[in-house]
Sequence to fold (393 residues):
Amino acid sequence: MQSARYDVIIVGGAAVGSSTAYHLAAMGFPADRVAVIERDPTYSEAATPRSLGGIRQQFTTRENMLMSRYGMEFVTSIGDHLAVDGDVPDVGWKEQGYLFLASDKGLESLQQNHATQLSIGAQVEILDPAALKAKFPWINPEGLAAGSFGFKGEGWVDPYALLQAFKRKARSLGVKYYEDEVVGVDKSGGRIAGVTLKSGAKLACGTLINTAGTRGHMLAQMAGVDVPVRPRKRIIYVFDCREPPPKAPLTIDTNGVFFRPEGPSFVCGVSPEEGNDPDCLDFEIDYSFWEELVWPTIANRVPAFEAVKLVRAWAGHYDYNILDQNVILGPHPDCPTMLLANGFSGHGLQQSPAAGRALAELVIHGGYRSLDLTRFGYERVLKNDPIVEANVW
Ligand SMILES: Cc1cc2nc3c(=O)[nH]c(=O)nc-3n(C[C@H](O)[C@H](O)[C@H](O)COP(=O)(O)OP(=O)(O)OC[C@H]3O[C@@H](n4cnc5c(N)ncnc54)[C@H](O)[C@@H]3O)c2cc1C
Fold:
């Protein structure tokens, strides 16, 4: 059986794993000492290609804002990072903003969030109902007290294109990708010794990086540790509209229902209530959300959406951190040579550049250099001390 030794093995070669591979190589770590193991190079079940690719500054946690800002800066200067032989990837950046709507009940927190966002330099504005109507004439402002609009640095990318661009660049720099599945993690004296692959091959390594997405907790279990991250299904509905509202931002209504344009169509959805959100890995589509909640909400908010045609739907999974819906980043205390990047929940695509950079810094320097993400470490799990991020759904 094939056997090799690497300094770093990255398990999961989608957005976060491939960003990590790229950042390691780009930051000078010997690329031929890095391997990425990916069980499914078509990424048919991974979160990344099923994502909406949104990037926003409108978080309430400083680290989340700054990670996403790096994501935005990265995609808007993509040629400086991911061009291969002068070929600049097109990741389809659309800077159309995010619009968070609030009723009287949500107004105070919208204003508080706004102040926090301004303090780190986010380009956001609060619009009262008259200003909302003036800027977005297609909106019905009934029941709204205000909206928070991110007019710059927010929008969405093509997530699959970003993943492929990371991967292509990482490979061009010399990182090796294995098409195989990690089925066992070998340890020696509390340290990672290597991995066993489904093919039967064994690879040795010094550091294991867990970027296995919705299967990250299974990989952690193979190493004898737990991460409180589980797969949770999210459904995206795609519809056409005869008179589409022009230049619509990603709009989140007061009940969490969201929509945005996708080419000539629109995508929309809502997260289920906590009690109706089981761990699961199936891809079944539940149309009752569309019938009972999503369509009535969007038709009320945008009169043009009263007459729409549902054209398709897809399901994907968040790697959902059941403690606080934020990433767990860095070493596991009981297995310090396994670095975690698990639990991004609904915002891992935009954080993939910053997470990859952070993991590369941990490997190369043993600590964060560009952005201190210590607060996202596993210690908060041990202390049961969640980071409360208000703008997740
Ligand atoms: C419907 C939906 C909408 C979303 N919208 C957004 C959004 O607008 N903005 C945003 O920022 N984020 C969004 N997200 C979240 C985002 O998609 C994820 O957080 C992000 O893609 C996670 O990337 P990842 O590389 O960590 O995981 P994944 O993309 O899940 O990749 C993990 C990879 O690991 C591989 N793997 C797993 N186990 C093994 C193993 N044992 N051996 C080998 N390979 C293995 C898998 O095959 C997979 O390719 C959305 C997610 C969903 C489902």
Q: What stands out?
A: The first helix runs from residue 15 to 26.
